[in-house]
Amino acid sequence: MRDSDVLVIGAGIVGTCTALMLCERGRTVTLIDRDEPSAATSFGNAGVISPWACVPQSMPGMLARVPRWLLDPNGPLHIRAGYLPTLLPWLVRFLRAGRPQRVASIADAMLAVNRPGLELYRQLLDGTGEHGLVRDSKYLHVSRLPPAAGGLAWRLREERGVPFRELTGDEARDIEPELSPEIRSARLISDQGRTVNPGRLGEVLARKAAAAGVRIERTAVHAIRPQPGGGYLLETGDGERRAPVAVVTAGVWSKRLLAPLGIRVPLEAERGYHLVFTDPGITLENSVMDADNMFVASSMEAGVRAAGTAEFAGIDAAPDYRRARIFARHSRSLFPRLRTGETTEWMGRRPATPDSLPCIGEVPGYPGLFCGFGHGHLGLTGAPMTGRMIAALAVGEHMNIDMAPYRLDRFA
Fold this sequence. Notes:
Structural class: alpha/beta
């Protein structure tokens, strides 16, 4: 006996959006996670909803910058020494993805997933009374250096119609008055959004899903078992669950769930940290990227959140909260009037693929088993469109989008 039409594994923001999209198409859905909805990686991001995100993490020339980042204890990248041998194959794929002949097509595929995100969130929030969770915003990239040529990253944006303009330091302070006098140049991306509480956004959408009939179960999924007659059985901490269709949206943990099926995915836990200044004394109206120190700051319900950094240490290593405390110094440099005495800190695991593209679609060789994970830094932005894509595929609905860039077997 089946439990639902579809079992969705993972109740982060991607899984929650997927469950809602499936429910809207008349499917009965069970959403399963060991944690409460959006309590893990989806809880602590920088809150940026960036419809124009189209620049891959791996870019030409990046290899030359890595040694400087690694040698800087306050820098944006850290690899724990004992983890380097495990990470090396992924790093090789990552650097290959940044070759000049690849970045343009990756940028196009990124934009296809991210572009609808802001409008889809507004639609998903209909009926919740919580539209204020997602706000119109600008994305301000600021620097203490004088204006310089934009390089490939800004050229990729320009070629794709991203609405941005260059600013002086004074013009940037006209938009965000709390910025330091040391800021000398900036680039402003328009038509952005931000959420003032990523975790609560996920909770609100999960409540909407439950009210619409989605069953939400808090239990661990230990294994996915294909059934001889079709469909899938899940072994969970609370017994077995069956359905004709299953969807894996478990973020970085998706790799472990798929491995027993013979599916090998180059998915790494790119561990990010945040520091929230709970009595900040200032308010920011937009998302601010410190391009020199590579972190994002934004005002949220709990205070001013500074988020970023990339640490590679595996899924299970204990957090190193020194990575979060780095943001106190950087944030004071960026916002001189910021009060930094009261803080909370957090670590989450971004699911990172080598080419910055998520894995979306049917798992090759397993009819009725779908995946939606690997969004890296852009899970919040890409979640609604990912949910729409998976729901359309699951019900046989045509979408005018090339799914090849997101195939799970593209790394074979």
